[in-house]
Write a structure and sequence with these properties.
Elements lengths: L7 H5 L5 E8 L6 E7 L5 E6 L4 H12 L8 E4 L8 H8 L2 E4 L9 H11 L13 H12 L11 H5 L1 H7 L1
Parallel strand pairs: 1-4, 4-5
Antiparallel strand pairs: 1-2, 2-3
Helix pairs in contact: 2-3
Amino acid sequence: MGIDERPAIVEEKTRIGDWETDTVIGQNHQGALVTIVDRVSKFTLIKKVDSKHAEVVTEATIILLQPYIDKTKTITADNGKEFAGHEKIKGQLIADVYFAHPYHSWERGLNENTNGLIRQYFTKGSSFENITDEQVDAVMHKLNHRPRKSLNYKTPHAVFFAEERQEAA
């Protein structure tokens, strides 16, 4: 579905569970990182994949979001071929998938910004062939535990999991 069909509440950024997704490509188009970020908390998920093929990106997306299926309402992607498996993603995660307009990267601006933060660790033009899953996990941990001014200096992890702590209290 096109982004114009996305529920208005997603734009309000008032609930956890509306995600933006993209890929970061390695040197010579060898390897990629699937990046997914929650629009409210900025909680980030990253997985290294061997290629940008739709099947690979689809599986990585499902693997990353499956543990948070109860916090997955919508996913917004760009129009790249790598997101051709959106029907499988929708079925597995029970979440609607929306596509930004072509060449409108600002419609997924948080994800674009997050990819810039990831590039601080894996610079543009660097090879992803020797990046380990542990290195990717370390970057993901750093981003999720970095206080953000826009979150009143809370971390994405604290904001993302705040509802669970409140319910337990």
